[in-house]
Amino acid sequence: MQFTTTYISLAQQLDQKDELGSFRDRFVIANPDLIYLDGNSLGRLPKPTVDLMSDAVERQWGERLIQGWNDGWVHQPTQLGEKIAQLIGAQPEEVLVCETNSINLFKLAVAALRLRPDRTKIVSDEFNFPSDLYILQGIIDMLGNQHQLELMRSDDSVSITPQAIESLINQDTALVSLTHVAFKSAFMYDIPRVTELAHKAGAMMIWDLCHSVGAVPLHLNEWGVDLAVGCTYKYLNGGPGSPAFIYIRRELQKELVSPLWGWFAAQKPFDFDLDFTPADDISRFRVGSIPVISMLAIEPALDIFIEAGMEKLRRKSIQQTEYLIYLAEQWLYPLGFTMGSPRDPEKRGSHISIRHPEAYRIIRALIEPASPAVRVIPDFRAPDNIRMGIAPLYNTFTDIHRALTRIREIVVNKEYEKFSEERLAVT
Q: One of 38, 125, 172, 208 is an active-site residue; which one?
């Protein structure tokens, strides 16, 4: 889309035409003057979740007590999985909500490596979230250092070239483990192409969907994806630290064996057999009792996403990120900012990184302004990224205009110089 003016009136016109505009009212927005551009780290609270949490604590736990398990708690991992499956292009029985993203990656990666016992290479990239790399490094150590982790490198710190991908995946590769949308730059892999490369080499493929689920349409079955993991607290608005999910293609479920043989992974958990027999389906990747309250909080937002539709969300996301880039080009590039995300919308997710040597202090000034300045919450990613997550369900074009206006003010007026370069514990 071509934008022709930086006046706020254009943003207001785009908001008036927005086919998803009414969904903003489904979320708690306590302060309309707070511009929240961190939905890719923690999504806003859906209004239906408030009443549901009250019911979960007061009635389900307070009144029903242990009967709550038979009222439906025990089935939450698969029932929520069925709804997430609608967002990622999977069959209902291929998705399970359980544990954390790191634990789920551990389970799937170990299981996948055991299917390729004669291969010694694991391929990832330097864009991967460090926790994913730590998990892979820990697995290598646990398995006696029989594997090597090789990372694809970027020429520009923004994207990975097809040549870099092709150069590392070969007949020695047991596993390729990549994040679909890079957490810093928002670079987005071509899942079908990379998955096909892995399969042609005989390797297993795991995709981390944390920064793409709820932001871009996914078609895992159509793309032939083996395995995937993802979290629910970012774009999916499941709440702080809400449980993650795994995807296992149906044909692989009986072949894979989890390295964690937990109670709820057993074929008949309540027979209390002393010897483990894994479940026949994806439940074999469950471990122990679920965090019921956190699990229940996920569902309201999933219903909203299903109603809104991922194709509509993606169209708005592209339009909004293009608008953000347009304003940055007009206002911020002349002030020393550079682009930290791919310019092609087909190669990026729903967040935009802009780079500046004073990025950290600029963010401090955005978050802690002197009254009556507008308060903006993005986040900082080292070394110099101001990362702005666009959540189309509740972010408006006017939000984007006001945020970019505020960044320009901070730099022009050198307001960031009032803040220390010392980093807070969480950035």
A: 208
In this model, does residue 2 exceed pLDDT 90?
Answer: no
What is the predicted pLDDT for the residue at 290? 95
pLDDT at 219 over 90: yes
The length of the chain in residues reads 427
Catalytic one among 106, 187, 233, 305? 233
Q: Is 234 a catalytic residue?
A: yes
Among candidate residues 129, 189, 380, 397, the one labeled active-site is 129
DSSP 338-365: EE-S-SSGGGB-SEEEEE-TTHHHHHHH
Catalytic residue among 119, 249, 286, 387: 387
User: How far out from the chain centre does Cα 126 lie?
Assistant: 17
Q: Pick the catalytic residue: 44, 83, 234, 355?
A: 234
Q: Which domain holds residue 278?
A: 72-306
Task: Indicate if 26 belongs to the active site.
Answer: no
Q: Is residue 222 part of a domain?
A: yes
Give the pLDDT score at 425.
Answer: 76
Sheet of strand 385-389: strand arrangement: 338-339, 351-355, 385-389, 379-381
387 has catalytic annotation: yes
Q: Assign residue 196 the CATH number of its domain.
A: 3.40.640.10
- The CA-based diameter of the chain, rounded to the nearest angstrom, is 70
129 carries an active-site annotation: yes
Tokens representing residue 144 in the block: 């006696």
Best CA proximity match to 147, nearest among 178, 116, 101, 102:
116
In sequence order, which residues have a C-beta less than 8 Å from that of residue 165 and are 6 or more positions away?
152, 194, 197
pLDDT in tens, 301-325: 999 999 999 999 999 999 999 999 9
Poorest-confidence range of 111-115, 246-250, 380-384?
380-384
Active site residue 364: no
Say yes or no to pLDDT of 284 above 90: yes
Quick one: 100 and 142 in the same domain? yes
Q: Closest Cα partner for 368 from 418, 328, 405, 423? A: 418
